[in-house]
Write the structure tokens for this entry.
Amino acid sequence: MPKSLLPPKVLSELKRQLNHELSAAQGYLAMSVWCAAQNQKGFARFFAKQAGEEREHAGKMINHLVDRGVAAKLEAQPAPRQDFASLLEVALHAQAMEQANTQGINAVFEAALAAKDYPAQVLMHWFINEQVEEEAWAAELVDRVKGASCAGSVSDLDRHVEKLLAGDGEKEG
Ligand SMILES: [Fe+2]
Ligand SMILES: [Fe+2]
């Protein structure tokens, strides 16, 4: 493994953020479990897929660090929120998680800018774009759940949620 060439602040921000991505993965998995227990199978699959994507995000950062000589330390994760009173609470929680994640991504980018760390800046461009998409589906999710006013429209939404909120991977593929 090469000697680390990362500016210290970029390194600490990337380590913080990759652990944050892992906690987002746990958060989405918990939301998936809640939805599955409510027989909202479409939502359960949707959030399970988001959990996988968040792990992939952590993986991108881990790979970047390994390529630059750092074996990032994984931290213990706090238990994710798993109690929700309604599907709307789940949707709002997802939106709040994505908004917080955008702040974290921006903080990494700002550290990379300040340190003139060009490779980390380019890495973060991908994440900045990704967060635009993540916040877009989260806002649409909140709107659609708010608009589903009866049990019938909720189950209709459950049936189509994966297609309606198709993430970046599906749009590209
Ligand atoms: Fe992420
Ligand atoms: Fe996300």
Q: What stands out?
A: The chain has a mean pLDDT of 93.
